[in-house]
Amino acid sequence: MAGGSREPGRTVTSKVLAILGAFDAAHPQLTLTDVARRSGVPLSTAHRLVAELEEWQALSRDPDGRLRVGLRLWELGQLAPGRLMSQAHPWLQELFVTTGENVHLAVRDGLEVLYVDKVYGRRAVPIVSRTGGRLPMHPTGVGKALLAYEPDWFVKSYLARKLERPTPHTIIEPGRLARELATVRAQGYAFTYEEMTLGSCSAAAPILVDGRAVAAVGIVVSSRRARELPRLVDPLLNTASGIANASPPSSGSGP
Amino acid sequence: MAGGSREPGRTVTSKVLAILGAFDAAHPQLTLTDVARRSGVPLSTAHRLVAELEEWQALSRDPDGRLRVGLRLWELGQLAPGRLMSQAHPWLQELFVTTGENVHLAVRDGLEVLYVDKVYGRRAVPIVSRTGGRLPMHPTGVGKALLAYEPDWFVKSYLARKLERPTPHTIIEPGRLARELATVRAQGYAFTYEEMTLGSCSAAAPILVDGRAVAAVGIVVSSRRARELPRLVDPLLNTASGIANASPPSSGSGP
DNA sequence: GCAATTCTTCCACTCAGTGGAAGTGCACGC
DNA sequence: GCGTGCACTTCCACTGAGTGGAAGAATTGC
């Protein structure tokens, strides 16, 4: 009876990864049944695999018994970002102290920006992005800063899709967005005015290493204070170039 | 010839986890051969599993082709620590701003402390611990703060082992250490004087939720400035209780 | 107390996974 | 140019680890 009709061609590894992938920012804690449903792994199989993952502390349980990503996975994750990110943090820190604004660092992942670090104060404007969060590129400052330095074919394919419009201010017309990106490229930084969230504006600058934007620094302020953004450009650019230069001298510097 | 003499009883999952476990703070980037050697997984098997992990961005490759923990794993890890840690960060930030000292947050994992967050300035004393780092409990401030609130049986078994002695100042005599812990418990905070690293002192306070130390906040200063530690106790305790209270009202508060 | 939901265990079948060995590719030295 | 060493990739026939439906246990809700 049992074991006969398995779904073929699915590796154990892919199931393990599907189980881990069931967790995301919107669903940080799940029951076993949730995990099975979201990952597409049969319940009994999920049960066994989850038990192994728990044993290794890749997953652990909340007080109420729900599953969460475990400490060991967090610890592993800390090894990921490499030199750039850990070197960037003090710079972000300093930018926060000198400007008093919420600052963050983001990289591109696929067609989205992934927020990899942020520094913020308790009294400042509440900020939407959280570390590890993802947002589309075109409505965000860091997204525009990164997109502007991607190769043409990439930008083209980005613009070719139907773009989300989180607010009425979001620029989604391909032509207008392309012109915006040209401006960003020309001046070296990007602004947004309520393009992602009503009430928030931002300035962002790419971190350029060998001409490629490996990350971007952003500052978010409430839109009432949008007029202060230009004032923030200088410290922003300083920070961006500081981070870029702090990264170890590029190995392939020459021609 | 092939496939016959496999090592039995090892699940695929355990191999995947062993491969991930091959990465640690001392070995953040590895070649495939390293991974196979460190994880005990045969090279050809490691090759296949690593390829699957790469496809999912659980692992990725450095410019020079060596393997690293990938972005997706970092992203997953961000979901791990739950409310406490993300709520703690602004408090740490503030403690750093008011004191100007290096501050960090640690939790107990097994017999070690795991540093889960830190805030530091560029000009301050260089700090040994890095996020995700592990240290033994008895020579560190946060370690003592955490150990002091563990149940008796745990402390007993901790003291029963032969304790490491990273510096001549490290307290490793069980009796003396037990007395030290009693003091910590009595006064609510811990000091260390060059017990982990020559040249560094620290003060630390536990974050108590329902009488259990769920984490600890620490401040590190250079030992020349050890006399300033007492002055730092008040802000430290404020921070610790602030973090503790900021966590959502405990569900099982009163019997 | 019964129904709904979630979690755990069972087990016979079978194909996904295995790993030693052979092949490929690259870098260096002579 | 050619051999030597090392790291990576592919191959393949065998087999037991993994499978998943279903039944049972535990828990929750009404």
Entry keywords:
homodimer, 255 residues, alpha+beta, Arc Repressor Mutant, subunit A, Beta-Lactamase, 6-stranded antiparallel β-sheet, 3-stranded antiparallel β-sheet, DNA-binding
Helix and strand arrangement:
Two copies of one chain form a homodimer.
Chain A lengths: L11 H10 L7 E2 L1 H8 L3 H13 L3 E3 L5 E3 L1 H8 L3 H18 L2 E8 L2 E8 L14 E3 L4 H7 L4 H9 L13 H14 L2 E4 L6 E10 L2 E11 L6 H18 L9
Antiparallel strand pairs in A: 1-3, 2-3, 4-5, 4-9, 5-6, 7-8, 8-9
The first copy, chain A, binds a DNA duplex (30 and 30 nucleotides) through helix 3.
Characterise this structure.
Two copies of one chain form a homodimer. In chain A, 41% of the residues lie in helices and 20% in strands. Chain A has 255 residues and is of the alpha+beta class. Chain A has two domains: 63 residues, Orthogonal Bundle (Arc Repressor Mutant, subunit A); 165 residues, GAF domain (Beta-Lactamase). A six-stranded antiparallel β-sheet of chain A has the order 6-5-4-9-8-7, with helices on both faces. In chain A, α1 packs across α2, α2 packs across α3 and α5 packs antiparallel against α9. The C terminus of chain A is likely disordered. The interface between A and B is large, with 51 and 51 residues. Chain A binds a DNA duplex (30 and 30 nucleotides) through α3.
